[in-house]
Amino acid sequence: MKLKFEANLQYQKEAIDSVVKLFEGAPYIRPEDRISQEVSPNILKITQESVFKNYDNIAFDSLIDESKQARNSELLDFSVEMETGTGKTYIYLRTILELYRSYGLTKFLIVVPSIAVKEGVMKTLDMTKDHFNDLYNEKIQYFEYDSKKTTRVRHFAYGNTLQVMVINVQAFNADDNIINQERDANNGAKLIDLIRSVRPVVIMDEPQEGMDSKNMEKRFDQLDPLFKLRYSATHKKPINLVYRLTPYEAYNQGLVKKIEVYSIHEENTQSNVEIEFMEIKLTSAKPEAKLQLNYKVGIDFKTKTGLFKELDDLEEKTKNPAYKGWIIERIYKDLMDSTEKIKFSNGIELTKGSKHGWDKESIFREQIRWTIRRHFQKKEQYKDLGIKVLSLFFIDRVANYVFPEGIIRKLFVELFIQEYKEKYGKEPLNIDQVHNGYFAKTRSDEYTDNVNSMQKNKEIYNLIMKDKERLLSLEEPLEFIFSHSALGVGWDNPNVFQICTLNESHSEAKKRQEIGRGLRICVDKTGERYRDLDTVTEGQEINLLTVIPNESYHAFVTQYQDEIIEETGDARQTKVRNAKKGANKIGINRDILNSDDFQNLWKKIQKKTKYMVSFREQELVDKCVDELNSIVVREQIIQTQAIQIKSLSELQDINENILSKGETSTKAKSSVANIDLIDQISEQTSLSIKTVIEILSKISNSNMLTRNPIVYLTDAVKQIKKVLNNEMVRVISYKPTNEEFPIEDFEKFDPQTYNDVVSAHKGVYDAVEYDSNIEKDFVLDIDQENKVKAFVKLPKWYKINTPIGTYNPDFALIMEKKDLEKGGETKYYFVVETKGTDEWNELKEEEKMKIECAVKHFEAIGFEKYMAPIKNLNSLKSKTNLS
């Protein structure tokens, strides 16, 4: 079958016209007018000023934001941003024909960053030649630069027809390249000078891949291009952006496939010794290893990356007892193969990118199972449409597939048979015909995992491109394709509907790059593109790409969105402090500080206290046993979650635009670390070893302990501390000490702050910092209330000790009430804790405990007007009968 190309896609025509219209007003140059001595150069008769007038009009009509334009009127250098999968190569090839037809330009140099991209361009030139001939009645004479075939370059310079040369950036990026040398075969001339003489139009395909350096700027200048055109989905340095099709627009307009994610990952693995060795960071001192580990953060665990040195103890650094005995012995680069390695004191050694402590086989099994299952489901759904379904597996260890005992090959065959029998009720025939691999070989005919070797291996890319159309035929039995992840850029087959990444090691590949291999709109058996109707039900699209990663969907889509934001810019802005507004000034109000009212208030609340607790140990043990018996620990599982990305937005998080399609799980093969549970509980709760042993000996759910010891430890410590805190607060008593909070300390304050403040007339300070709008509103209300004589937001140094940490109340104030009948005035002194509620039951447990302790503290010093919780001034008045 042969792919057919669409000539009337509006967005493609707009991208082409945006470039062609840059030179509007320039006359067409006839062939006979182009001949200059022997060569036939490009000629363009238009001033640079006119080009940029055209540019400004195009940018305005295209609604390109000025901040994105990167306008530079000194350079005839223009950028086109096209989302992956929308036909970037087709667009610039057709732009070549339009420039030829409109202005008579004939010499074009397409510069590519790699063999993979070059093979893709050459394949597209092959596939589109008949299509373009039908549209323009013109054939492009194209060739791939080869330093051994210099006659092609001479023909490029001397010929008077439409010529396109495709060249790798590596072919002219150094002085010792053949193209930059004087050779007898070129009559003593440099090939670069011959190319320069025709003033080629330079088209830069993926310029961010090694074409933006200072060296390459110089190399491009040596070509003396008539102008340059840059095409990419991910420009790092766009110049004079003339057209932009963002990922958001392409996705939401249905120009690429919709995406669903079947995430497969382990859960409840806190007790596993999970280590991912990312890389070595070379510093001026000793090398450091970047590791991803499970850190204990407070009472929970969080996966984070960190830098580690030799002799670092992972248990000590992460506060996670699962890493007991894991001390870094050596961080180095192997002299034999330059592999980065890390060795631990227990003898285990990891190489860069490798992971320890994960259930590889179970995860691979579920990934392969769901890839096959979705493949069969779509095959059934598409059969009447004549659409071939392909699934693409990316792997990072060739041996896992090419050898009969390779884990991926064995799992695929086993699961294919299972899923086929379940779907069709019979044994599959000729399994070997439905799957195959595309892998690079060395010169000695051995398969290789070496990324550099693969990227230079022209033969494998030739094979991938050669088979592109064959794989789309319904007569071709091959449906499941295995390829090394490093070859990913070579795959852009439109009928890839599933992409499954079966990597053993950390992948540096970006999600957009991974997904991009399957984003193109699919084709049917005749080679025609099949487009979903606007009325299609969400989730029932034909153009739906299923991505099966071995990580949570949240991690996947978050990284995917972060890459889009990084590469395209984003309307959302992180809130930053406005440094230009300067600091807020705070001054002391001495009239208030020295007033009798405030002095009397301070005398009432200035005393410090200490607390004492005593309780019966057996009662404590029994309560701890009851709480530990309520602990439920989930087993380690392989979790599969399916979601579909409904739309992409510059203004919204992807997670706000997903459609959940369900979830399921299977049991994982757990491999838990040995920890000293008794010692850890004792250390973290301050209970004696004897008491901990008594508690654990009485629990009735010891099976929970073995499921996930680290989680059980965390929950047990949490529950025991809760019992201890409750008991201590219940029986706590406070006693005044001989110490006081000195009133003189109000003189010790920072006269300026960058925090938010509100002005105050009745406060000890003339501006009050606030932590919330509740506090702000309370200050505004009491400052304007006639009954309030003075107040202070209690400083950070005014702290009450409690068993669960220090407590700093919010406000102290004096209110005055006049008695109309009896005459006279009565003063009331309060300490107030403001909260978002007046309801006790709506407070958090820790808030309740601290308030209960504060009540007993103030009672001990003879102060009975501690009010908590208080939502606002009205609730204070209501609770104190001062309305």
Descriptive account of the structure:
This protein has 883 residues and is of the alpha/beta class. The chain folds into four domains: 236 residues, Rossmann fold; 84 residues, no CATH class; 206 residues; 166 residues, Trna Endonuclease, Chain: A, domain 1, CATH 3.40.1350. It is built from 29 helices and 32 strands. Strands 17-18-16-19-20-8-23-24 form an eight-stranded mixed beta sheet, sandwiched between helices. It has a seven-stranded parallel beta sheet with strand order 3-4-2-5-6-1-7, with helices on both faces. Strands 11-10-9-15 form a four-stranded antiparallel beta sheet, with no helix packed on it. Strand 19, helix 18 and strand 20 form a beta-alpha-beta unit. Helix 6 packs parallel to helix 17 and helix 23 runs parallel beside helix 26. The longest helix has 23 residues. It is globular. About 1% of the residues have low confidence.
Q: What is the compact description of this entry?
A:
Helices cover 34% and strands 21% of the residues.
Helix and strand topology:
Layout (H helix, E strand, L loop, with lengths): L9 H11 L10 H4 L13 H14 L4 H4 L7 E6 L5 H16 L3 E6 L2 H22 L4 E4 L5 H9 L4 E6 L22 H6 L4 E5 L8 H9 L4 E6 L8 E5 L1 H6 L5 E10 L7 E7 L6 E10 L2 E9 L5 H5 L9 E6 L6 E5 L4 E3 L3 E2 L3 H23 L7 E6 L3 H4 L4 H18 L6 H4 E4 L12 H5 L2 H9 L13 E5 L11 E7 L8 H6 L27 E5 L4 H16 L15 E2 L4 H4 L2 H10 L1 E6 L4 H12 L8 E9 L12 E10 L9 H9 L3 H10 L3 H6 L1 H23 L1 E8 L11 E2 L3 E3 L7 E3 L3 H12 L3 E6 L17 E8 L6 E10 L10 H16 L5 E5 L2 H8 L3
Helix pairs in contact: 1-5, 5-6, 6-17, 12-14, 22-24, 22-26, 23-24, 23-26
